[in-house]
Design goal:
Helices cover 70% and strands 0% of the residues. The protein has 6 helices and no strands. The radius of gyration is 18 Å and the shape is elongated.
Length: 107
């Protein structure tokens, strides 16, 4: 997220560029911000190979963490299922990504 803020500031630097080039550069930076924030949100899903699993494991009480630990073997299957069904169902992380980008980028 810090990188996205730095890139947003960098977009204002090339004032010598023609307005069309500035618009293209701004769109490219915005797409980079959307991609990075989307990957950030995806990585926080509480599925085993992703970081969200470890974050949730450390936040849960011991009994709940031990019960949640048993789902570790299902992680790969859940990820493949999400990636395959994500485009065809209403399961989407886009609203979270869009909320974060809106408050970060202020377009």
């Amino acid at each position: 997220l810090l990188l996205a803020g730095v890139l947003r500031l960098a977009a204002a630097i090339p004032a010598w560029l023609p307005p069309e080039s500035q618009d293209i550069l701004d769109r490219m930076l915005l797409m980079g911000v959307y991609l990075n924030v989307g990957l950030f949100v995806f990585n926080l899903l509480p599925i085993h190979p992703l970081d969200g699993f470890t974050v949730l494991m450390n936040a849960l009480p011991l009994n709940a963490a031990l019960a949640f630990e048993r789902t570790r073997g299902l992680g790969v299957y859940l990820l493949v299922g999400y990636l395959l069904l994500g485009r065809t169902s209403d399961v989407s992380l886009a609203p979270v990504r869009d909320f974060l980008v809106h408050h970060l980028y202020r377009t």
